[in-house]
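The material for today's practical consists of a large collection of protein records. There is nothing in a record beyond a sequence line and a structure line. As an example, a complete record with its sequence and its structure tokens follows:
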Amino acid sequence: MKKFVVTFARGFGSGGKVIASQLAKDLGIHCYENRILTLASQMSGLDENIFQEVNEKIRETNAISGFLRGLPRTRNYIARNEKFVSDDKLFGYQSEIIKSLAEKESCVIVGKCADYVLRDKPNVVSIYIEAPRDFCVQRTMENMGVTEEVAHATIERTDKYRADYYQYYTNGNYWTNPVNYDMTLNSQKIGVENCVRTIEQYLIIKGFITPDMINSSDEIN
């Protein structure tokens, strides 16, 4: 089968990260999220010439996924308490990493405007996961161990950060625009597990996978 990439954008607390991770697990491919930012941050601290050498080495040796998998993987919720401040250089490095991944392997990429970065690629499926606020609040309270008030504030701040980030780096587009995505799913109405199954069926329709490629034996939390 040809290489493909599934990108995910998601409202905070909607279960989007869980859905992305389970999809990758079912398909036996890697799921990348904050490790992309970590590697891009490391690269952005390099002298421009050194960065170019490192970037070329990664591309030539097909080692970028190895670099990423060698970085710590964050399992906890990542909430944004700060206002969005642009960093064009960092975003440029992030974009290079995302493009390189798309060239080298089938994978799942969460956030980072990956749908926009890979918008001209025919082998990309872009997904947006959202849910009503009450559902997201309940999940946030359970997963972060916080009060309802803190959960509301966390969702509001983090989603505002993501919206501003997306608008800035996509030249004015807005994060929740359904036209940006192949599919927008309400994780409360369809259920987290059924979101995964629906995306898998769409990938079959698109011809990226076959039914026998799905290994869905684990319960999704």
Remarks:
- The domain at 5-213 is CATH 3.40.50.300 (Rossmann fold).
- The CA atoms of residues 132 and 163 lie 17 Å apart.
